[in-house]
Amino acid sequence: MFEKYRVPLGKKLDLSDYDPADTPFTGERKGDDKARMAELALKLDELQTLLHANSRQRVLLVLQGMDTSGKDSTIRAVFQNVDPLGIRVANFKSPTPSELAHDFLWRVHGVVPGAGELVIFNRSHYEDVLITRVHDWIDADECKRRYTHINNFERLLADNHTRIIKCFLYISSDEQRKRLQERIDDPNKHWKFELNDLKERSFWPHYTKAYEAALSATSTEHAPWYVVPSDVKRHRNLMVAELLVQALTELNLSYPPARPELAGMKVG
């Protein structure tokens, strides 16, 4: 089922081929989805413990999407049962003056997973080929060079035992409008809203084009992109969790060998 949503290698992506309201991973009843999500969350906790104990493999989950696509909510739902000490979230906002003084990957390399770590990128290095391209802060040639640098960077991570799962949380323009309006109408959600959100929304067609180009150029065998239909929040959460559980399971993790010198030892 995942293959349908995996961005094909070396082919131009057309997001109109995907329905952001699709729900292939949900059940017939909301209660079924809640039970499955709880099951997946417990499985992730088990697999993350193995990842940490093994201390050889690394896992990187990249979450990208338009404003209101639910990156924060996905993290809360998917990792609800995982020991907070077992994961690390890296948030990428507007670059600081210090970060702008370096190459665009400089701020990223310092927060990639170490041995035994599971790291989530809430937004990521892809901001530097999305918003920068939409607003013409870089030209087409520079953007293509950055695609190459990103692919080489991710190849380096993969060669160092990092499993990379990249999820584009795909929502429709109508769904974004509803979610932004909810933030305006509910005083308790005003903290989530900024006037700039409306300005960026006006560039929706440009962002769609930028995402299609970026995902097409950077979906590789070692770091594939998945289009995650996200109009339905519980489907978004389930699909990301299913992807992550599958990826961790495929690592065939195990606990380190028992230490013979501890056999029969008694604590006095």
Please supply descriptive tags for the structure shown above:
alpha/beta, 268 residues, globular, single chain, 10 helices, Rossmann fold, 44% helix
Kindly summarize this structure in a few lines:
The chain has 268 residues and is an alpha/beta fold. The chain has 10 helices and 5 strands; from the N terminus they run αβαβααβααβαααβα.
Describe the structure in your own words.
This protein has about 270 residues and is an alpha/beta fold. It has a single domain, classed as Rossmann fold. The chain has ten helices and five strands, in the order H-E-H-E-H-H-E-H-H-E-H-H-H-E-H. The protein has a five-stranded parallel sheet, sandwiched between helices. Helix 1 packs parallel to helix 10 and helix 2 (about 70-80) crosses helix 10 (about 235-250). The chain starts with about 30 loop residues before the first helix and ends in an 18-residue tail after the last helix. The relative contact order is 0.22.
